[in-house]
Amino acid sequence: MGSSVQAVGQHKATGPLLVGATIAMGLMAGLFFAFDVAVMPGLAAADDRTYVTAMQHINKSIENGMFGLVFVGAFAATGLAAWLQHKAGRRQAALWTAAATALYVVALVVTMGVNIPLNNQLAAAGDPSQIHDFAAVRAQFADTWVPVNMLRTALCAGGLAALTRSLVLHGRFGRAGR
Hints:
5 helices
């Protein structure tokens, strides 16, 4: 009896968790996309000092609790939803959710391996009043950060698409009563 109560609890938690994972993945995809289509093109039109100063401020500002919650929550909720679907025998939905988890893990690896070190390098350039060669600082940052951010956008958009498919399958499973 205990395992059936646990299975019912897992079943009830899976839907809301999957919705939360989808929202978090969508927020991450949207954040990266906003940088691709608005922030970085807008800064590209600015002079080197403005570019470096603005990105230093943006990188510092994004380090906040809400961003951290969504950044980590997208991974945790997606991974947990995949596991719960697997445990409940929802093979197809679990595979789509696992694919979303894998795509997001690659985005995390790229973020931690490329974007964060570049952000730290930009911060280490120091106070803008002390920087002598803004063009060099900008080039060292932007030439890699911008295309890699586009990769993060694609990975998270793929994760969002996979989670959307999983939600459809999850809904079909619920209506079928299996």
